[in-house]
Amino acid sequence: MPGVRGSGVFVRRLVRAEAGAGVGEGTERSWRVGGSVLVTGGTGALGARIARWVAGQGAEHLVLTSRRGLDAPGASELREELEALGVRVTVAACDVADREQLAAVLDTVPEEFPLRAVFHAAGVEQAAELAGMSLADAASVVSGKAAGAGHLDALLGDRELDAFVVFSSIAGVWGSGGQAAYGAANAYLDALVEDRRARGLAGTAVAWGPWGESGMAAGDGGDQLARRGLPAMAPGLAMAALRGAVAGDDGVVTVADVDWERFAPAFTIGRSSPLLGDLPEVVSALERARAAEESHAEGGSRLRERLLALAPGERERAVLDLVRGHAAAVLGFSGMEGVESDRAFKELGFDSLTAVEFRNRLNADTGLRLPTTLVFDYPNARALAEHVRAGVLPDEGTSATPLIADLEKLEASLSTAEPDNAERMAIASRLQVLLAKLNGGEGGATEAESITHRLDEASDDDLFDFIENELS
Predict the structure, then answer these.
(1) I need a surface site. Which of 25, 97, 197, 360 has the fewest CB within 10 A?
(2) How many Cβ atoms sit within 10 Å of the Cβ of residue 156?
(3) What predicted TM-score, i.e. pTM, was given to this entire model?
(4) Between the CA of residue 164 and those of 83, 124, 161, 347, what are the distances in Å?
């Protein structure tokens, strides 16, 4: 989001951390801690890794919280493992979104081991489009991350700490499809850390990309993230980055393994992005993507020859199968049977990232320069196939094809729209005028406009008579 100031308009930009600046493997600076260390989400996969690390950094007492406490899977074994290292361990059942529960946990920290560091790794990740989320759904995602961090900040006040680390996400840095609420919660964490540092308090936010062996990357979502240019980080490498971030001086850092060749073109699908514009890898990736767009003519020639060898009735099916096959491959389907010809691309699971890969595949095979927005411009595979066929075989019925495609887009929009009564009548009236023009030329348009005028001037009784006589 731009910041408007008296001196101008400012936007965020990502810059690569300098070597030795604290983030990364092989960091020479060390970080030690004594006393008690609180880890929220401490019995989960990430929390357990943090606990093991801080136990080796001098922590004398670990307070691990999770909603289920010792009833969480592996919690008892984790406690035994840590105690074997000579660390005192408290595992508490606590919903950090509940201020009173969190305050009660903080009150249990013994005076002999005062609280010296906080790692906030609790949170709920739920992929869902904002339009399909209820207020309760959004609250459940936001509460653990944002409310928990806010409560920690308020309850600890200006207490001096060696570290106050929150686990944020790239969803709050550059957004992520289906994670609006999750992204908002993580953006709050980043802002909270900036606020703490402005108050002279400890604060570090680490905006993570996907970790291997945990979170979305541990399931089927891992392959999809990798196709989008976000492969999962090895946990050991991620922990090395965490050590560097905690020992370093930066307040908000982003740690992710990014395949810029895949990610950058998709991220800039709608417009250029100042956020990534200063990263050399992004500049190079976008230059190569533009060059690739201009080198697909050979593929188009082969497709044209193949289509011309088919009977006219078979060409439509061949192009439709081409479109469905590439869509299935991009979405990770086992075959094109999963891509129904008339089903909306959005319903199939396309987003801006997969749309770019889909476009690139079609460009390579067709020789066309299709827009990155094609899955949003054409409602389904059938409509897109008609457009592609018209581009590859421009001499075959080109005059009607663009109009038909436009009508199909309009039909798709109307089928999902929910206009009120007044808007519905206005749309119907406009369509009647257009239909009259198509059927009867200027005379037909005059008749339709006359009907519209009669409706505007009609009384209630006249309207009921019109409905009875003309529309029943």
Answers:
(1) 25
(2) 18
(3) 0.70
(4) 24, 20, 7, 41
